[in-house]
Design a protein that fits this description.
The chain has a single domain (about 5-165), classed as Cupredoxins -  blue copper proteins (Immunoglobulin-like, Sandwich), CATH 2.60.40.420. It is of the alpha+beta class. It contains two helices and ten strands; from the N terminus they run αββββββαββββ. The protein has a five-stranded mixed sheet, with no helix packed on it. A five-stranded mixed sheet has the order 4-10-9-6-7, covered by helices on one side. Bound molecules: copper (II) ion. Copper (II) ion binds near residues 92, 147, 149, 152 and 157.
Length: about 170
């Protein structure tokens, strides 16, 4: 990525925080932020209600920087309860978004490793623990997810959800 973060680190952090906060508010436009125009996170879905979950998908995270499975398929409109188990000795997280935004965020996380994620599109899981992330996939598209602990994304800790048209 060719973006130069150093002179605008503070600004980036503000933009970043603002962008995270808008993830769950589809009415706000990304055009109002300085984020790249290709971001499409709003269409990636929205937080799901536990009672609305139609299916459970188990995801394991491990210190080899892999999600297992890292490629899952759901139907458009489905609300999925991800049961996310951390099998490693490091903290891992699962963040749902789109690839460009996740990559940008991962870079920021390396600059500011203490940045905390407590939004509805992500779950942080302590070693040996399991946590749930409930997400509704509204649009037929590829939705990405990743671990944004510093360095993990770069090591390949990412995956995708293929949202297919329901018949
Ligand atoms: Cu990780």
């Amino acid at each position: 990525m060719k973006r130069n973060f150093l002179p605008s680190l503070l600004l980036s952090s503000i933009v970043c925080a603002f962008t995270i906060s808008t993830l769950t508010i589809p009415s706000l436009s990304h055009a109002d932020t300085q984020h790249r125009q290709t971001t499409d996170t709003d269409t990636a879905g929205s937080p799901g209600k536990a009672g609305a979950a139609s299916r459970t998908i188990h995801i394991e995270m491990a210190d080899d920087m892999r999600f297992t499975p890292s490629d899952v398929t759901v139907k458009q409109g489905e609300t999925i309860k991800f049961v996310v188990a951390n099998k490693g000795k490091l903290v891992h997280e699962m963040v749902i978004g789109n690839a460009a935004e996740l990559a940008e965020h991962a870079q920021l996380m390396r600059k500011m490793p203490d940045m905390k994620h407590e939004e509805a599109n992500q779950i942080t899981v302590e070693p040996g623990k399991t946590a749930n992330l409930i997400w509704k996939f509204s649009k037929a598209m590829k939705v990405d997810f990743a671990c944004l602990e510093p360095g993990h994304f770069e090591a390949g800790m990412k995956g995708k959800v293929n949202v297919i048209v329901s018949k």
